[in-house]
Specification:
The chain is α/β, with parallel strands linked by helices. Among the domains are: 285-415, Leucine-rich repeat, LRR (right-handed beta-alpha superhelix), CATH 3.80.10; 424-547, Alpha-Beta Plaits; 676-706 and 748-838, no CATH class. Bound molecules: 2-acetamido-2-deoxy-beta-D-glucopyranose (11 copies). Residues 1-22 form the signal peptide.
Length: 868
């Protein structure tokens, strides 16, 4: 019977092997053997690929970050994975790829392979925040389907290839923060150019070394640009009048260049502008007329060489202004009070001009006004108003020469602090290194962190609680995080005049985000799927590396080879410590040579049993990994499941479901209303000598049990079928890599096996208290010793059982005829009787791979077993 079961088993294995290889579509064999092969070869050159990539040979089967359709790779999303290496030409083999996001992997370096141009179906290409260098390949111009191209924040150099002008579907073009040089290419009779990008809404070329004039030809009325960010380059010449034809423009940043000449009058046509920043150029002539820009929020014309003039009319007519900046503006005469009365005005920064006469801010000062900086002007007197009590700086004006002690003649008056998410509710709790306190739960965990750069916020006031609260809320809502599990810290306007904010996102449960979540959040931010409140304007995000839990394999090339842990969760040491009240004695439910078992309660209320290895009984990293890998695959309604594990801070712990009806011990002591199913209990005890041994207290009917005379572990038919669902074929293909091998150490003996079971069944059935049950378990453990010579013979077992029963005052004569005493059995064994919790320390012998297999309750099979 058992043999036939085993045969069934074997059949499964064989079937498994036959389909263990790549299932991707063979039609993909365009370059290097198809998409699977292309990704395999990328895997080989990249370090830190997700552990699941080492689990299966088929990228379309459970590789994190890989999306397939019809067995072809269509999306690769590996944001913030800590990838290291180069982008090899093999990427070109992923011909069905539609979306490629490698953002925020700063250790991805080297050149951008021209073979990116082979990805004819590519729609989204995001390489932001990596370490790529060299030229942008011309071949990117072949990506006819491309709509989103983000190459920002790398070290790319050379020119912007004119071929990008062929990307007729492009709506997002971000080349910012590189080392790009040369002109902005426009089309000629023979070459394409960026003026052809009629679908483009975003030209983000800021912070490069682009030079030459902004071509007049670049802009046309057919364009739909909303953000033109050319700031921080070396652009020269005049601002082209054609820019005034792009009526859709909302943000125009040309600041920090070397633009000269007069501002074209055409610019005043840009009635949809929210932000205009022309600061730090060499612009001359009269100030532009902005009076038609009724929704202009933010204007900065500082540090040019405009002709001296009085305050332009629009100082008094732009109702939406939040921020007016014109330092070194050559402004003179009186400063109109109207500018202080706009409903949204926050900051008026006009230092180093020549405003003179009396400053009168008027009686209807805007309620948002925080800062008026008029340093180094010619103001000789001030009419103070009770309507304004925030900061006014007049240092360097004649009015201060006599009144230097007055508040407005001092710097450093500001008392309000920049916004930061409050942790006040957490009572000053501190966290271990790398962890941070979630403002929502006040728990320490590993947040996903990075910096948000807002390239053109419509405001300047970084103390505005409401604005930042709205940012927080939009983040947790749109990134699907637990409400409040977000922290914003230290906002400030940096030297580039970008609003920079430290962002930390906290996992909803547990200490860590998993890779899938990190990839998702990273993509939401890199693909601009997340949109901040409108006031924050265009942004980009740069993630900090995420500290994923240490990987499994102890060493070697294949060090990313962590197991795929279906359902098994990583627990941090701190989490388990907390769940067991610091591993308190009260929580102990068992102990033995290997360590102790604790009852614990997780944050979500789940009660678990935690087996904690003590120093000296730790397994090697690989063995522990293998054990978890196998245990986590075994799912059965009647078998206690592995919930997770902890492998950090020098600890090895396994976390199991805890049976709701109490432990065996409690059952024995009558606490849980007796009627133990002894048969089941014994079968648990027979589980295995290692990995599953401690399950005896936890499992109800065990489904895995070991044959008495061999080291084979048998599965009930029911579990066998279940396990098949979980992919035994995978196990076998793993074993082909040498991780796990199988070996039959004995032969089956049905009679003995079932004999034992029957004895137990009939003898123990319907008993009340059974003080000898512990000894049953000890006996059972003897039966599953690793070495056959350490296991009792069948007659010894029978004797032992009789003795135990007699000790309990039970009449055994009806079930057995043996009569010798139990001491024979106990004394005849060199090894001490082990309580089932005391599963032995794994042996470091030459057959370690076989051990690694069977101690985990795995599935032995033999090619030699013949059906009976
Ligand atoms: C300025 O804009 C008008 C209309 O928008 C257009 O006709 C004219 O050609 C533009 N001037 C320049 C120099 O582009
Ligand atoms: C104007 O130039 C000065 C001196 O270079 C600089 O300190 C200041 O930040 C500039 N102002 C603005 C608004 O860019
Ligand atoms: C203010 O400056 C303007 C232009 O420089 C000058 O004409 C005017 O007399 C000055 N007014 C005062 C009160 O100094
Ligand atoms: C990652 O975490 C999310 C949310 O907690 C969960 O829904 C998802 O199943 C996890 N994915 C993996 C592969 O563990
Ligand atoms: C990427 O962003 C674009 C526009 O922001 C959006 O339409 C698209 O759905 C996003 N892609 C995904 C997969 O979210
Ligand atoms: C937990 O136990 C360790 C020693 O076992 C002790 O040093 C530590 O203070 C305890 N922590 C708490 C919170 O009880
Ligand atoms: C616990 O015992 C009760 C009553 O015997 C039973 O209905 C229930 O299913 C048991 N729960 C588990 C998890 O075994
Ligand atoms: C397997 O499951 C079936 C249906 O649930 C049940 O009748 C049968 O007894 C089970 N077999 C074993 C060996 O537990
Ligand atoms: C079981 O043990 C308890 C306490 O030791 C005792 O009160 C009870 O009578 C016993 N029951 C049987 C059936 O022996
Ligand atoms: C044990 O059981 C046998 C058979 O049922 C019976 O003859 C004998 O009297 C019993 N002995 C005791 C001590 O109960
Ligand atoms: C390993 O297994 C083989 C085959 O069963 C056996 O011959 C050998 O003695 C074993 N080695 C050790 C160290 O146990």
């Amino acid at each position: 019977m058992a043999a036939s079961r085993l045969l069934f088993f074997l059949a499964l294995f064989t079937a498994g092997i036959s389909f263990s290889f790549s299932e991707t579509d063979p039609r993909d064999d365009v370059y290097f053997g198809g998409t699977a092969a292309a990704l395999q070869s990328l895997k080989d050159v990249w370090k830190n690929t997700p552990p699941t990539w080492h689990k299966s040979d088929d990228p379309c089967v459970d590789w994190e970050g890989v999306t397939c359709s019809n067995s072809r790779v269509t999306a690769l999303g590996l944001s913030t994975m800590g990838l290291k290496g180069q982008l090899s030409g093999d990427i070109g083999g992923l011909t069905e790829l539609r979306s490629l996001d490698l953002s925020y992997n700063p250790d991805l370096t080297g050149i951008l392979t021209p073979r990116l141009g082979d990805l004819q179906n590519l729609n989204i290409l995001i390489l932001a925040g990596c370490g790529f260098s060299g030229d942008i390949p011309d071949e990117l111009g072949n990506l006819a389907e491309l709509s989103f191209l983000a190459l920002n924040s790398n070290q790319l150099s050379g020119r912007i290839p004119p071929s990008l002008g062929k990307l007729s579907k492009l709506y997002w073009l971000d080349l910012a923060e590189n080392q790009l040089t040369g002109p902005i290419p426009v089309s000629t009779s023979t070459t394409p150019g960026l003026n052809q990008l009629l679908k483009a809404k975003h030209f983000h070329f800021n912070k490069n070394k682009l030079s030459g004039p902004i071509p007049d030809r670049l802009f046309s009325p057919d364009m739909v640009l909303i953000h033109v960010l050319f700031d921080g380059n070396r652009l020269t010449g005049e601002i082209p009048g054609s820019l005034g034809q792009v009526q859709t423009l909302e943000v125009l940043r040309l600041d920090r260049n070397a633009l000269s000449g007069e501002i074209p009058s055409n610019l005043s046509n840009l009635v949809n502008l929210n932000e205009l920043n022309l600061a730090n150029n060499k612009l001359t002539g009269p100030l532009p007329d902005l009076s038609q820009m009724k929704i202009l929020n933010y204007v900065d014309l500082s540090n040019n060489t405009f002709a001296p003039s009085t305050a332009p009319l629009w100082f008094s007519t732009l109702p939406s202004l939040t921020t007016l900046v014109m330092e070194h503006g050559a402004l003179e005469g009186p400063l109109p009070s109207r500018v202080f009365s706009f409903p949204q005005i926050q900051q008026v920064l006009l230092k180093n001009n020549a405003f003179n006469g009396t400053l009168n801010m008027g009686d209807s000062v805007g309620t948002e006004l925080q800062l008026v900086d008029l340093q180094n002007n010619q103001i000789s007197s001030v009419t103070l108003t009770t309507a304004y009590t925030n900061t006014l700086v007049l240092v360097g004006n004649p009015v201060c020469s006599a009144l230097s002690n007055t508040n407005y003649c001092q710097l450093q008056q500001r008392s309000t602090k920049p916004y930061s998410t409050s942790l006040a509710n957490c009572g000053g709790k501190t966290c271990p290194p790398e962890q941070k306190l979630s403002p929502q739960s006040c728990e320490c965990s590993f947040p996903y962190e990075g910096t948000l750069y807002f390239r053109a916020p419509s405001f300047k006031d970084i103390t505005n609680v409401n604005l930042f609260h709205s940012l927080e809320m939009s983040l947790w809502v749109k990134l699907e995080l637990t409400p409040g599990s977000i922290s914003l810290q230290n906002p400030f306007f940096n030297v580039d005049d970008y609003l920079q904010v430290q962002l930390a996102l906290f996992p909803s449960a547990g200490k860590y985000f998993n890779r899938t979540e990190i990839q998702r959040i990273g993509f939401d931010l890199s693909n601009q799927t997340y949109k901040p409140p409108k006031e924050f304007g265009p942004y980009y995000f740069i993630a900090s590396p995420y500290p994923f839990p240490a990987s499994w394999a102890p060493s070697g090339k294949d060090s990313g080879g962590a197991p795929q842990l279906k359902g098994a969760r990583w627990f941090s040491y701190d989490e388990l410590k907390k769940s067991t009240h610091n591993f308190s004695e009260n929580n102990e439910i068992g102990s033995g040579g290997y360590g102790k078992v604790y009852r614990g309660m997780l944050a979500d209320g789940q009660v678990v049993a935690i087996k904690r290895a003590q120093q000296g009984s730790m397994q090697g990293g690989l063995e522990f990994k293998t054990e978890i890998e196998l245990l986590s695959r075994v799912h059965h309604k009647n078998l206690v499941g592995l919930v997770g594990f902890c492998f950090e801070q020098g600890e090895q712990m396994l976390v199991y479901e805890f049976m709701a009806n109490g432990t065996l011990r409690e059952s024995l002591s009558g606490k849980s209303g007796i009627h133990l199913d002894w048969k089941r209990r014994l079968r648990v005890a027979l589980g295995s000598a290692r990995g599953l041994t401690y399950l005896h207290e936890l499992a109800n009917p065990p489904i895995i049990h070991r044959d008495v005379k061999s080291t084979n572990i048998l599965l009930d038919e029911n579990l066998t079928a279940k396990v098949a669902d979980f992919g035994l074929s995978k196990l076998v293909s793993d074993s082909s890599k040498g991780h796990v091998s199988t070996q039959v150490k004995g032969t089956l003996n049905d009679d003995e096996y079932y004999g034992l079971r029957e004895i137990m069944d009939t003898s123990i059935r319907n008993l009340g208290n059974l003080t000898g049950f512990g000894r049953f378990l000890d006996l059972a453990m003897q039966c599953v010793e690793e070495s056959a010579s350490d296991r009792p013979t069948m007659s010894e077992v029978v004797k032992a059982i009789e003795t135990i029963l007699q000790f309990d005052g039970i009449n055994t004569s009806s079930t057995t005829s043996a009569s010798s005493s139990a001491t024979d059995f106990g004394a005849s064994r060199s090894s001490t009787l082990r309580h089932p919790y005391s599963d032995p320390v794994p042996r470091k012998d030459a057959n370690v791979s076989a051990d690694a297999f069977d101690y985990s309750g795995g599935y032995s099979h033999s090619a030699k077993v013949e059906p009976k």
